[in-house]
Amino acid sequence: MTDATLDDQLASLFQEQDTKQDQNARIKELERQLREASKEADKLRNARDKAKKEVEDLRARNERLSEKAAASDKHRKQVEHEFNQKLVQYKARLAREQAIAQSRMMPMAAAEEQAESEDTADAASLEDLGLNAAAIRALTEAGYDDVAKVRKAHADGVIAEVKGIGPKAQSQIAEALDA
Prior knowledge:
By secondary structure, the chain is mostly helical. It has helices spanning about 5-105, 110-120, 135-140, 145-155, 165-179. Helix 1 packs across helix 4.
């Protein structure tokens, strides 16, 4: 074998060794990149799991708040209803007390004359006003159990506040009292 052949073979071996070293370096770089990608994937999985948990917590909190809001709304409506009922009762009481105060302030003869005319006009029962049973029941429950009280409440504008007395019944009451 000649020196040139040996040199060629030696050069070929060195070149082959350099190629293997380059390949090993690329393999190590790829392994490093794979480890970094794996770490990044783990971070992303953890972030996704954390976000899922936060969403579940927010949904549970939203549900609890919705339940509290519904309960609060129900309570508010109940309190409002009770307030309106008491308001109607107080207005009716005020109207009665105002009527009593007015009657005490009138001269005796005028009071007697008015009482006589009211007695004859208000001798009719609530049924004679031509109202349906529900309206009569609503008036009676609100304390307007005779025509005189209904007349006074109508004059004072309180009748519109009685629960169960709608526009139709108010119109019927007005027509019956004007007749």
